[in-house]
Amino acid sequence: MKKQYAQLSSEYRLLLGPGPVEVSPRVLSAMSHPLYGHLDPNFFEIANESMELLRYVFQTKNALTLPMSGTGSAGMETVMVNLIEPGDKVIICVCGVFGERLRDAAGRFGAKVVSVEASMGEAIDPEKVREAFKAHKDIKLVAIVHAETSTGVKQPLEKISEIAKEYNALFVVDAVTSLGGVELKIDEWGIDACYSGTQKALSCPPGLSPVTFNDKAVEVIGNRKTKVSSWYFDLNMIKNYWGQERLYHHTAPINMVYGLREALLMVYEEGLTARFARHQLNSDAFVAGIEAMGLSMTVKNKEHRLPTLNAVNIPDGVNDALVRSFLLTKYGIEIGGGLGDFKGKAWRVGLMGESSKRNNVIQLLAALSDALLDQKFKVSVGQGIEAALAVYNGR
Ligand SMILES: *Cc1c(COP(=O)(O)O)cnc(C)c1O
Prior knowledge:
Blueprint: E1 14-15, H1 25-31, H2 41-58, E2 64-69, H3 72-83, E3 89-94, H4 97-108, E4 112-117, H5 126-135, E5 139-145, E6 147-148, E7 153-154, H6 158-166, E8 170-174, E9 193-195, E10 208-213, H7 215-222, H8 235-242, H9 254-270, H10 272-292, E11 309-313, H11 320-331, E12 333-334, E13 346-350, H12 358-374, H13 381-392
Parallel strand pairs: 1-12, 3-4, 3-5, 5-8, 8-9
Antiparallel strand pairs: 2-10, 6-7, 9-10, 11-13
Helix pairs in contact: 1-9, 2-9, 5-6, 10-12, 10-13, 11-12, 12-13
Bound molecules: pyridoxal-5'-phosphate.
């Protein structure tokens, strides 16, 4: 008797969590296209277009803009391991789990880390970054998370970028949950290096991590005194595969690149301005619905709320796990639980890429009301949906 292995089932799922999110059939279909070899000129045409389209979404002219193999964390490691040499002093801004990861990575690569912190649910105060520069000489770089997926905070970047420049330090940004969903201007905002991921606002399966480096960052990498301590993520070698030389380094994940190019084409066809407006509108409608239901958002300052990741406070007496399993079993809807300090305290609703749609917002507000009523928590389904519709209808 042969063992019976699980079948991939096509049970209905609507992915409204922190990522992965919904992926267009157009992207999935591109990924199932027969393979070209990773050194085939036909593949390089697709690869080149994916780099060109990445420059469009990053709003940059940076030549060194490419998708690293691996998920968003691979992009984080690429940026940190290439820019940091043992003993370098760096400032890491931490106001959630992904800032903590950056700090952990910087330490592992031998940096002396100065932390600038904010409470969970709040953004980093630029003045605190300035104080850190005053207190510590010779800071090489400042790293910060643009969209803190663990708390739903959108971090304003321009002021901190200016301060980094005053002190001649590189400005490094984690844009995993903002690229393609929230305004992000690499060149205009003076960002020297940035990384993202495919399974968040770009609406692609997980597997690649877009990165971009300006000339200043490339020069810093070129002038290193020590070898990059990771072989796989060493940009000095990787750039010769993605550049004119086409030198083999490691086999490019061919079908992931097909998928990414297709997802980026969809961003290009929609246009960045329209895409950001769509994300903001769906988030505004969702928040209006949540507040009309008597719930509250985790991020108090409206200016600092991310449209891509909407964190909702879990009301007292409501069981987090039961609500999420109710949504999954009765509606096929996945939302995220809290991370770090917010475990059991917040739900994380991802409205990004293909998931950021009016029908998803209305469906989730209705399903969440049902789940809360099941917990004997009183909400008015009607009021929540009416408030969301009022946003859509401009009332
Ligand atoms: C998801 C995420 C990451 C990590 O990406 P993976 O694809 O899970 O490796 C890093 N930073 C932020 C802000 C994220 O949301």
